[in-house]
Write a structure and sequence with these properties.
heterodimer; A: mainly alpha; B: Rossmann fold; 3-stranded antiparallel sheet; globular
Chain lengths: 268, 310
């Protein structure tokens, strides 16, 4: 049987087990979800600024739509596999995954995806709030943008997962790979549109952001659903996102293959 | 007999970072780190035929676990060749991983917050075990290990012994042909150790599986392994029959006598002098007398201290 067919047969069970684990850790999950409310804080700050008049193209309603969609995108595309991978490399328990006849990245991905239904518990009510309030008028009615939003959401997850896995894999080369994560996360906050819409950044910084992978983790899906991007810009954005996804996955696979030769499987 | 496990001149070195104590050493290592190659396995060669049960012995740090990890494909050899059931382990082929299992007494694959049945279901999917075969194997193994309803309780609520039994079930669901067992009875009480030994022997006999076992409990080795491979500092120092090793390192019998005055005496007697020794002891009002091989722990200690060339 081909590897792909085996993967397709095993994946539903891996997702089911992953969901059961996520439910078992529901308390940690709740804490994590409460920790990802930065967009709401930024919404309060930016809303206060709009009392004097719109900031760029953003009035109060536009900010509400922007930051609530940002919250949904973060909830549905975040991947924190680096923490688990680095811990398993240090403790040597990665060995247990390597002993199984399935690529460890497949099992990590299932665990990450399996948590999505729980994250939806936060995302769906937020989406309902947007639609039922005045901010609903800021959501694009163009089917192209709506389809583009869901495609970019999948792309953002693939990119997030690959980058998080790259940082985790760096644990096979260096002892403090989580410092790389800190650096990445700092840049993400500034350049992804997570804290401030990219077009409100200084022009040069906004241009840097649009050429970096960060813009395709948050700004692309958010700007697509809120109609900031027209069809052409959505298409170009999706093409650039695909390029970053492929780059990240090729890097991940090369690093993984090289890193595995260095795995020392300490402990026990 | 063709070898199922073939190890030839295996060398495994680790790159170890070294620095002295103190702030100066810390600062210096920031700019210039010093590494050295620590050789854990040193030109080790042996082979094991299909269906054999072999004890893999050595003091702490001898290279036993490193060798098992190379054999199971977790570590890449620095030099030398390794073949297991015709496969090169480091390639980690699906068919290779489907044929082996590595049970580590100090690490567990069971999902901590879920019942063992969930780990079993996950392994069924990963190893692509047909449903009927899976149900039969789970029923059979849980009956043999007397697990019953325990497999439906969260793993964290099970005792160490119960968890270890569930670990064995999870590791054997795909009916591997080669079992690498690294301290499988560590921390278990005597009764649980007996259960595990009986189970491992039974699995070996029923499925013709090859067993390579490391354990610091010499009773495990004595009960399970007619042959032992002994290594020290990564090098082979003995490969052969366990009884022959005992005779060679400690060519004495241990005679334990309980005398009528309540005292107990122990005498280590060379084989040739056993008869005369017992005759003398019997003249002293013996209540009980036993003759046994010296404890395996003593044999190993002598071997590692270099008291006897093996």
């Amino acid at each position: 049987m081909s590897a792909l067919r085996r993967f397709a047969r095993a994946y539903p069970t891996l997702l089911r087990i992953g969901l059961a684990e996520a439910v078992a850790y529901r308390a940690e999950f709740l804490v994590w979800m409460l920790a990802t409310t930065m967009p709401l804080v930024m919404l309060a700050v930016m809303s206060a600024m709009t009392r004097e008049g719109p900031v760029g193209r953003f009035d109060h309603k536009a900010f509400v739509a922007y930051y609530l969609v940002t919250l949904i995108v973060r909830q549905m595309t975040g991947a924190w596999v680096a923490f688990e991978m680095v811990r398993e490399i240090k403790e040597g328990t990665l060995a247990l995954r390597l002993l199984r006849p399935i690529h460890p990245l497949v099992t990590y991905s299932a665990e990450s995806l399996a948590a999505l239904p729980l994250r939806a518990i936060v995302s769906i009510p937020v989406a309902v709030v947007i639609l039922l309030t005045a901010a609903g008028s800021e959501i694009s009615r163009d089917w192209f943008n709506i389809v583009g939003f869901f495609v970019s959401l999948a792309g953002a997850w693939l990119l997030n997962f690959a980058v998080s896995s790259i940082v985790g894999t760096l644990g096979l080369f260096i002892e403090s790979s989580m410092q790389v994560w800190e650096l990445w996360f700092g840049c993400f906050m500034l350049l992804s549109g997570y804290l401030i819409p990219l077009e409100l950044l200084p022009h040069w910084l906004s241009q840097v952001a649009r050429y970096s992978p960060f813009a395709y983790l948050q700004a692309l899906p958010v700007e697509t659903l809120t109609g900031i991007r027209d069809r052409h810009q959505v298409l170009m954005g999706l093409a650039a996102q695909l390029g970053w996804v492929l780059t990240a996955w090729v890097t991940l696979i090369v690093l993984w293959k090289r890193g595995l030769k260095r795995f020392a499987a300490y402990g026990g | 007999m063709t070898a199922q496990i073939q190890v030839e001149k295996l060398v495994k070195e680790y790159r170890v970072h070294e620095r002295g104590a103190g702030a100066w050493a810390s600062l210096r290592s920031l700019f210039k780190r010093q590494y050295r190659a620590a050789r854990a396995v040193d030109e080790l060669s042996f082979s094991i035929a299909a269906g054999e049960r072999v004890g893999f012995l050595g003091p702490n740090g001898a290279g036993k676990t490193t060798t098992l990890k190379v054999l199971s494909g977790l570590l890449h050899p620095t030099a030398g060749t390794v073949r297991v059931d015709g496969f090169d382990p480091r390639k980690r082929d699906f068919d290779f991983l489907r044929r082996i299992t590595l049970v580590m007494g100090q690490k567990q694959q069971l999902l901590w917050d879920l019942p063992p049945v969930d780990t079993f279901a996950m392994n069924r999917a990963i190893y692509d075990i047909p449903r009927r075969e899976f149900d039969e194997t789970v029923a059979e193994l849980t009956t043999l290990l007397d697990l019953g309803p325990l497999i439906k309780r969260p793993t964290r609520q099970l005792s160490l012994g119960e968890r270890m039994k569930c670990e064995l079930v999870a590791a054997l669901l795909h009916r591997p042909k080669v079992l690498f067992l690294d301290e499988p009875t560590i921390g278990l009480d005597v009764s649980m150790q007996l259960t595990m030994r009986a189970f491992i022997r039974d699995y070996n006999e029923r499925f013709g599986a090859t067993v390579l076992l490391t354990s610091h409990y010499m009773d495990d080795v004595a009960a399970l392994c007619p042959r032992v491979v002994v290594i020290d500092k990564g090098r082979l120092i003995y490969d052969g029959d366990l009884a022959a090793l005992v005779r060679k390192v400690r060519p004495q019998k241990r005679v334990v006598v309980r005398l009528s005055d309540g005292k107990t005496e122990t005498h280590d007697v060379p084989d040739g002098e056993l008869q005369s020794c017992i005759a003398k002891l019997l003249q002293r009002g013996v209540v009980d007398l036993t003759v046994e091989d010296p404890p395996l722990e003593d044999v190993m200690r002598d071997l590692f201290l270099g008291n006897h060339a093996a």
